[in-house]
Amino acid sequence: MYIDAVTRRNLELTQTARDKSFRGSLLWVLDRTKTSMGSRLLRQWLLQPLLDINPINRRLDAVEELFSKGQLRAELGDGLGKVFDIERLTGKVATQAANARDLVALKESLGLLPKIRVVMKDCRTELLKHLSVGNNNFHDWEKEITDLISKAIVDDPPFVIKEGGLIKTGYNAELDELKKATGGGKQWIAELEASERKRTGIKSLKVGFTKVFGYFIEVTQSNLEQVPPDYIRKQTLVNAERFITPELKEKESLILNADERMKELEYQLLCEVRVKVAAFTKQLQLVAAVIAQTDVL
């Protein structure tokens, strides 16, 4: 049914006529959905109600069964409440805008589907039997997505996708070698600081790093007389001087190149995972629609 804007306003379907507030509207009263997908669909059903008696009765039969089975309804609500917005996540994947956290959220949501199907396996009404997808197992494509994301993406990735820290060890051989190189390099830097303190006798000496100046050896003004001749002055501060050595400069180049390549490779691998997941866009959209309908009912 088409409902024009004036009628929607007078019926106070989504906002009150007096102050245009959501609170007090019919949707505010009805919406106890557990997912964002369900909430959007309920709004759509409210603004565009059915005219055909057969689908109306199918919905009512499903509602009646869920109303009469309190435990089923409670378990289903609990399961749905843990599902992320698969519809929005799928849109982000399809447009290659999803970050690593989005992929993990998608994986976790798909991982809940077998449990939801177990809850719904004994449903009797036509619509709920259809929505339960008929079994309590992963479909092949669901397993493919969850396995891929589980193997590739760390469990708690950062929001930024171009600074590394996204991909699990063991997923890509080149990346694993780069991680070893940067990890070993940082260990070397720590050992250098300890050895230089011992060699120079300067206990406050420290090896540091900035994005602008790179790696450096910092010595306070009071200890400058103890600086060895192989130190090359790099930067003067108010209370200290910063130096570089040929050995440190060489190691800096190796570490920074490996670190930069590691970040590039991780981003590249993330993009490849997104492309593979995007191949299942239609299936994901269908699952999102099923979850939304189940939630509304």
How does the SSE layout of this entry go?
Elements: H1 5-11, H2 26-30, H3 36-47, H4 53-68, H5 70-80, H6 86-94, H7 100-120, H8 126-131, H9 140-152, H10 173-200, E1 206-210, E2 214-220, E3 232-236, E4 240-244, H11 246-278, H12 281-296
Antiparallel strand pairs: 1-2, 2-4, 3-4
Write up this protein:
This protein has helices spanning 5-11, 26-30, 36-47, 53-68, 70-80, 86-94, 100-120, 126-131, 140-152, 173-200, 246-278, 281-296; strands at 206-210, 214-220, 232-236, 240-244. The chain is an alpha+beta fold and 297 residues long. Strands 1-2-4-3 form a four-stranded antiparallel β-sheet. A hairpin with a 3-residue loop joins strand 3 and strand 4 (240-244).
Distance from first to last alpha carbon: 19 Å
Main-sheet strand order equals 1-2-4-3
> Gyration radius, to the nearest Å?
30 Å
Sheet-strand content, in percent, reads 5-15%
Which structural class best describes the helix and strand composition?
A: alpha+beta
In percent, how helical is the residue content?
Answer: 55-70%
Order of helix and strand elements from N to C terminus: HHHHHHHHHHEEEEHH
Supply the number of helical segments.
Answer: 12
Net shape: elongated
Uncertain stretches: none
Mean pLDDT across the residues is 92
Number of strands: 4
The description of the largest β-sheet is: 4 strands, antiparallel
